[in-house]
Amino acid sequence: MKFRAVSPETRMNYMVWSIQKEIRKENQYLASLPYDPTPILLIVKAHIDRWDPAQLLATDGMEDEYDGESRSITIYITKHLGALEAQDLASAIDRVLSKSFQDLNAQDGQAREVAAQIIAVLEEVIEFEPAEL
Predict the structure, then answer these.
(1) Of 16, 30, 69, 127, which is least packed with CB atoms within 10 Å of its CB?
(2) How far is CA 49 from the centre of its chain?
(3) Distance CA 71, CA 73 (A)
């Protein structure tokens, strides 16, 4: 295999294309659900925004800063509605945020606290039985 030099523009274009492909795939999954996942997404987004783990909103970031992460976390929740546990959700939140923000060092317990808050609100809004808080 020959090495081929790739320009910075090509690398950037590939990264943008990859992100767009992932967003399309996530949106297709959410659209395929037999129910509207919007309430779940709004709950997740509100909690992640309030937490602001990467301090993006605190530094005048745009309101959509955590949209992608919230969508990914929502997908995790929809796949685990019948057996949603705070520790597992916290691990998923940590994975999603670490993938997006490599330099993120969330304090211990913050993701678990946010996960427990999300589950508590979901219990009030959506009829499902979480496995364990």
Answers:
(1) 127
(2) 11
(3) 5
Backbone angles phi and psi of 32, in degrees to 5: -80, -10
pLDDT value at residue 105: 64
Alpha-carbon span 98 to 53, nearest angstrom: 10
Q: Give this prediction's pTM.
A: 0.84
DSSP string, the chain: -------HHHHHHHHHHHHHHHHHHHHHHHHHSSS--HHHHHHHHHHHHHH-TT--TTTT--TTTTHHHHHHHHHHHHHSGGG-BHHHHHHHHHHHHHHH-TT--PPTTHHHHHHHHHHHHHHHHS----SB-
